[in-house]
Amino acid sequence: MKKLVMLASTLLVLSPQLVQAEAYVGGKIGYSWLDGECTLDNSCSDDGGAGGIYAGYNFTDMLGLEAGYDYLGDFDAAPFDDSMKVFTLAPKLTIPVNDFDFYAKLGAAWVDYDDIDDTVLVAAIGTEFGLSENVFGRFEYQRINNITEGIVENLDVNSLFFGLTYKFGSAAEPVAAMAVEEVIVEEEVVAVVEEPMPEVRLFQEYGVELFDNDSSKLAPNSEQYFDWLIGVMKKYPQAEAKIVGHTDSRGSAAYNQTLSEKRAQSVADYLFTQGIEESRVTVLGEGESKPKASNDTAEGRMENRRVEVIIDEFEIKQ
After folding, report:
1. Which domains does the chain have, with CATH numbers?
2. Which residue has the higher pLDDT, 110 or 196?
3. Cis peptide before 291, with omega less than 30 degrees from 0?
4. What's the rounded mean pLDDT across residues 98-104?
5. Residue 135's CB: how many other CB atoms inside 10 A?
6. CB neighbours of 237 closer than 8 A, spacing ≥ 6?
7. Is residue 207 a contact partner of residue 13, using CB atoms and an 8 Å limit?
8. Beta strands in 247-294 (DSSP E)
9. Are 301 and 11 in contact (CB under 8 A)?
10. Model confidence at 13, in pLDDT bands (50, 70, 90)?
């Protein structure tokens, strides 16, 4: 009789990213210019530097709400000569396309210009793109309609901005589930004289990343999740492990490749501190090249951010 024993250990850890909802903050700089005609003075300054800050909350991948405070420039529209500031609040509709998020906003703007306080319509379109796991760039065109009606006819303010956004995530969560299953398959063989067949064991572990946001350092207390691996490596000195890091597609491919390598190396370094020889461990980074799910959704990106630990088949020495 011969036996084939397969032992599979699966460690699932909740992602340190928010699954759907995420908050963000950012800052932007740019340029503004006026559309309209000064009715009381034909010579007026109608363009200048602009900037602002903003914060928002994405309820889903497509729907969010964003508030902002903008300095639009110092405009001379007689009889007024003052800087123009606005507070904006608008829903945000986003459509992900590959590595870019295209968005549109339509909402209200509260305008502070000299002694004029006005509430008008604001609209914007733009695109966002990943620079790292948490930092995103954005280009945006914004238009505010019909400011100071009666002083400047049909005055509209146009702005072009470049912004940097930081999206917050949650801290690493505790282990959600750990399952160990042993399957023993026995089959009768013809009664002939033969050498005993050695047992073969296959170990394979798949785990979602155990790291803080945008970091290659193992999150606090996450090392314990690999104690089972250390136990196997010490019990069976002939076993060799392969550690493979993966990321989602947010951020550049080069950045993701480096991050995946560093995260896999962090797991390997922990093994080395526990007495496992470096010669028995192989470290690889696959970056964003081998997704398990679609990168167009938050759930899919969570599945793709992972570290895999694999112990290939090896012979149990009698």
Report:
1. 2-17+172-315 (3.30.1330.60), 22-167 (2.40.160.20)
2. 110
3. no
4. 90
5. 15
6. none
7. yes
8. 281-285
9. no
10. very low
pLDDT bracket for residue 311 (50, 70, 90) = confident
Q: pLDDT band at residue 231, thresholds of 50, 70 and 90?
A: confident
Task: Give the amino acid at 58.
Answer: N
Give the CA distances from residue 297 to residues 95, 164, 166, 250, 311, in Å, rounded to whole numbers and listed in that order: 11, 22, 19, 11, 31
Measured CA to CA in angstroms, residue 314 lies from 3, 134, 233, 241, 303 at distances of 14, 40, 11, 11, 29
Residue identified by tokens 């503004």 is 32
> Which single residue is written with the structure tokens 């009664």?
191
Look at residue 185 in the predicted model and tell me its pLDDT. 43
DSSP secondary structure, 123-138, as one string? EEEEEEEESSSSEEEE
**145-175 residue pLDDT tens:** 877 654 445 678 889 999 999 998 644 444 4
Mean pLDDT computed over every residue of the chain:
77
Give the pair of three-digit tokens for residue 317: 């020495």
Measure the CA–CA gap between 293 and 303, rounded to whole angstroms: 6
Which of 140, 138, 82 has its CA nearest to residue 111? 82
Separation of alpha carbons 296 and 302, rounded Å: 11
Share of the chain above pLDDT 70, in %: 70
For residue 86, give the nearest of 76, 96, 72 by alpha carbon: 72
Contacts for 22 with CB less than 8 Å, ≥ 6 apart: 57, 58, 167, 168, 169, 298
Reference 267, options 213, 208, 306, 307; nearest CA is: 307
> In this predicted model, what pLDDT tens digit does every residue of 232-246 receive, in sequence order?
888 888 888 899 988
DSSP-derived letter for residue 218 is: B
Residue with tokens 């296959």: 202
Task: Report phi then psi at 10, rounded to 5.
Answer: -120, 125
